TrEMBL record:
Residues 58-144 form the SCP2 domain. SUPFAM superfamilies: SCP-like. It holds the Pfam family SCP2. It comes from the Bacteria. This is Putative sterol carrier protein.
């Protein structure tokens, strides 16, 4: 059941399969409830383990992920810093971003689980990029995104 999922404790491929198998209405219900923060934190905690330093080269960037659709109408923003061949994440953004990616919580779940194509999401306006769009197109190549 999706409400019991903790992406930090699951294999990324298992989480991707869970997202695939869960109806959108259930994803919406869970992400609108008390488990939202645990799920988002778990995803972001895992991101550095999926980072491909060999593909990043000399990339240095601060990226903000703004995940919307909270009940209060606000967003959860996480900060990703790519520098020196490392990827570090924080739930407290405090640096000026080179890029801000904004998308709904459901689209975010689909993106990080290979259940959505990032280019298609941009074209359809489901993911918005403010700042360095070249970096936005490169982000998916910097991670081993699990396939369901």
């Amino acid at each position: 059941m999706f409400a019991d999922a903790d992406p930090a404790l699951m294999e990324p491929r298992d989480f991707a399969r869970l997202v695939t198998a869960t109806p959108v209405d259930e994803l919406r219900r869970v992400m609108g409830g008390p488990h939202r923060r645990t799920i988002l934190d778990g995803i972001f905690v895992r991101m550095p383990t999926l980072f491909r330093a060999d593909r990043a080269g000399t990339t240095e960037a601060v990226l903000h992920w703004s995940v919307g659709d909270r009940r209060e109408g606000t967003v959860d923003t996480y900060e990703m810093v790519i520098a020196g061949g490392e990827c570090v994440l924080s739930a407290r953004p405090d640096r000026e971003p080179r890029l801000t990616l904004t998308l709904s919580d459901i689209d975010f779940l689909k993106l990080v689980s290979s259940n959505a194509n990032p280019v298609t999401m941009f074209v359809l306006g489901r993911m918005k990029a403010k700042g360095d769009r070249g970096l936005a197109m490169r982000i998916p190549t910097l991670f081993d995104i699990p396939k369901p």
